[in-house]
């Protein structure tokens, strides 16, 4: 096996462990408010992205 493939696999495994830990912590500590938190987060991201795209569209006209 190539050394870079081993490094890639180890990095992928480590990333998966870290992401799964943060996912577990979010759902554990946010509890019933988790869906509200995610809704506000996604709505904010969509509004900011829409604002950015509208500004870019105005500049192209």
Automatic annotation (TrEMBL):
Protein name listed in UniProt: Putative membrane protein
Keyword Transmembrane: yes
Bilayer-crossing regions: 9-27, 33-51
Organism whose genome encodes this protein: Xanthomonas bromi
UniProt superkingdom: Bacteria
Keywords: Membrane, Transmembrane, Transmembrane helix
